């Protein structure tokens, strides 16, 4: 049986390579995590499934808006959970969270609101510009990660 698959575009290749490169660190990074840090790490790891689902849904022809909306709803539920996940300042060496989360709580809260706004924007883009949806969500993730997540090599 012959499968008719479209070649991956540049963005899909970048996401695939980035996912493959971070997978080993994720597997080992959670080892030893406990309490609030483990809960945060597990929640962040679960978003990877939603992002993968979103990528798949928005890159298919035709776009699978039902699957994309399901992924966006899962991400929005995660977004609503984020303030609770960061209530407790828990920063063992294994954590990638930076102390600025608690030292500059107002800015962190603003980043969480921005992420949620990006998710709402992504939902509105599904019909007219589905190719933009993943970039919109990624901008919401990156905005917070750039300021409040330790950069890893």
UniProtKB/TrEMBL annotation:
GO BP terms: electron transport chain
SUPFAM superfamilies, per database record: Cytochromes (SSF47175)
Presence of the UniProt keyword Zinc-finger in the record: no
Signal peptide residue numbers: 1-29
Entry keyword Signal: yes
Record's keyword terms, sorted: Signal
GO MF, one example: iron ion binding
Protein name: Cytochrome c556
């Amino acid at each position: 049986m012959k499968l008719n698959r479209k070649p991956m575009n540049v963005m899909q290749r970048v996401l695939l390579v980035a996912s493959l490169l971070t997978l080993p660190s994720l597997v080992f990074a959670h080892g030893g995590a406990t309490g609030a840090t483990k809960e945060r790490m597990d929640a962040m790891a679960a978003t990877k499934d939603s992002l993968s689902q979103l990528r798949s849904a928005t890159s298919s022809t035709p776009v699978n808006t039902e699957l994309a909306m399901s992924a966006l709803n899962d991400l929005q539920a995660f977004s609503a959970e984020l303030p609770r996940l960061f209530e407790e300042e828990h920063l063992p060496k294994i954590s990638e969270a930076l102390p600025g989360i608690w030292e500059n709580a107002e800015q962190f809260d603003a980043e969480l609101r921005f992420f949620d706004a990006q998710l709402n924007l992504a939902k509105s883009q599904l019909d007219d510009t589905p190719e933009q949806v993943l970039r919109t969500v990624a901008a919401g993730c990156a905005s917070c990660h750039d300021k409040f997540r330790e950069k890893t090599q």
